[in-house]
Amino acid sequence: MQKIAENLQLGNTLTSICKSKDMPNLATIYKWMDKDKELKETITEARRIGAMTWLDKCQDLLDRETPPQEVMLLRERLNHGRWLASKLIAVFGDKQTITNVGDPVIKIVWDDGLSERKGEASTHAIKSSVNKLDEQLDDNQEKKSNKPMIN
After folding, report:
1. CA separation for the pair 7, 119 (Å, rounded)
2. Half-sphere exposure of 132 (CA within 13 A, CB side)
3. Do strands 105-110 and 122-127 pair parallel, antiparallel, or not at all (unpaired)?
4. 60-86 b/e with 16+ CB inside 10 Å = b?
5. Are 86 and 106 in contact (CB under 8 A)?
6. What's the CATH code, domain 2-92?
7. Where exactly are the structural domains of the chain?
8. How does DSSP classify residue 123?
9. Is residue 122 a contact partner of residue 109, using CB atoms and an 8 Å limit?
């Protein structure tokens, strides 16, 4: 398994590694991965490192002279390397994780349009946990339930 992990880190595919006579069958490795979570993590991490190796190879491809007839093939290899990195390496991924720090604050601003208060906006801020906020919104809805709703 160490040899498989090293080859994956070098950017080789698991399929090509398993074609070697001294390696187990691809289906056998997948069965082992299903049974052993640590092995699955090892192979996944080796693939992540292999994706970084692919990025290095892509940079090397960009640095060399390319004949015009090979430009399209080079472009496809570079796109594949970029795609692989975006899927396996979190730093290069398209997904963004946004975390909220602190209590959520909802600020409601309105202008009632009265002439004596022209240009002044009335505000009301609710700062609370989500459950308390839901309770406050429910209480406000009950108070307004006798007023007709405008759609």
Report:
1. 69
2. 8
3. antiparallel
4. ebeeeeeeeeeeeeeeeebeebeebbe
5. no
6. 1.10.10.60
7. 2-92, 105-143
8. E
9. yes
pLDDT in tens, the chain (151 residues): 889 999 999 988 889 999 988 899 899 999 999 999 999 999 989 988 888 888 888 888 888 888 888 889 888 988 888 888 888 777 666 666 777 777 777 777 766 666 565 556 565 555 655 555 555 555 555 555 444 445 4
Which residues are CB-contacts of 119 (< 8 A; sequence separation ≥ 6)? 111
Give the type of residue at 58.
C
Task: Give the pair of three-digit tokens for residue 117.
Answer: 């208060």
8 Å CB contact between 65 and 41 = no
Element holding 105 (H helix, E strand): strand 105-110
Q: How many CB atoms lie within 10 A of CB 17?
A: 19
